[in-house]
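User: I'm putting together notes for a lab meeting next week and I want to include a structural view of one of the chains we've been expressing. I don't have a solved structure, so I'd like a prediction I can at least talk through. The sequence is below, exactly as it appears in our construct file.
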Amino acid sequence: MFDTGNTGFMLVATSLVMLMTPGLAFFYGGLVGRKNVLSIMIQSFVSMGVTTILWYTVGFSLCFSGGAGGIIGNLDMAFLHGVGPGTPFGDGQIPMMVFIAYQMMFAIITPALITGAFSNRVRFGPYLIFLVAWLLFVYFPFVHMVWGGGLLAKHGVLDFAGGIVVHNIAGMAALASVLFVGRRRIKDAVPHSIPLVALGTGLLWFGWYGFNAGSELKVDQVTALAFLNTDVAASFAAITWLFVAWSREKKPKFVGLLTGAVAGLATITPAAGYVSTGSAAIIGIVAGLVCYGAVGLKNSLQWDDALDVWGVHGVGGALGIIMLGLLATTAVNAGGANGLFHGGSHFFVTQLVAVLASSVYAFAFTYVMLWIINKVTPVRTTEVEEGELDTSLHGESAYEHL
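Assistant: Thanks for the context. Below is the predicted structure for the 402-residue chain, given as structure tokens.
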């Protein structure tokens, strides 16, 4: 009944996206101080459990059941009601269960991205409340509006693999979190382990092929385009960041190269299947320049976004949506659109409005939500907790000699 090639490919793509969350944990874990490694890593890993439960119970249904042209779906498919092994997705080439699992991996990693911004400063209990509330009121609505036939899709917004749905809203939520919880009291000597950062980057880059190429949901020429564009943009961004930082900081920094690669990956994500490979190279170069500049702006404004989530993911995701509005062409994907440089001025304006609206909503809701959670239970760690977060909050230490 199902196409075994497409089904097999999507199972591999799902596995690759799942691997990105542990990759993110290693990436963030290497960037923080030695006494706070486990506290940042558990925030990624716990999302794998909590988000899966939420996705099974109500999340998938709210995203992909009913609500055509609206903001959120309905609960008709809560607890995967009506879904069996033989239930088809779309044109029937893959089982619905594969699509459910694939989209679940996106839901797992998106809130985990935010955690790098407020490292060392948020207690675990309030984080769990934050995780559930943010998925219900920010992530699920945007998945529905963009990928579930909702409001933004109705108006022609395109987002191939998550420029708005994943990176922009997570980055803006990160900025709101930073401004709410304030600056760290104790600045660790970071990053404590650049090899861990490199390992995390490698896993993220590897998994990103499933993230972007898998978003075609089958194997065809667009799948191949998205795969190649992912690597091209990441590579151009990494080298751009390396050389810009080298010229300014007088040393070729490994962390800069790795951060540039992630910025390129985030920026190409919404455009991967809609632009030419030449355009992907341009997107990578622009990502390296703009995201490096955003991190510099953050530093000058003294925002304590510890791991540059806003500068890399928030700015990268927004930039990718805007670049898509400029460079998209139906010559490479007939199911896409023509950007401004190909005569599509209306599409460009649509993309611009969408990214502005999503940014404002994600920032405002996250800030208000944290304020409400703080009224119930203190969000911020105490000074004692912040000094040795792993032992004070979790009773464990990443390194025995500490």
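A couple of points you could mention at the meeting. The beta strands are 88-89, 94-95. The mean pLDDT is 96.

User: Perfect, that's what I needed.
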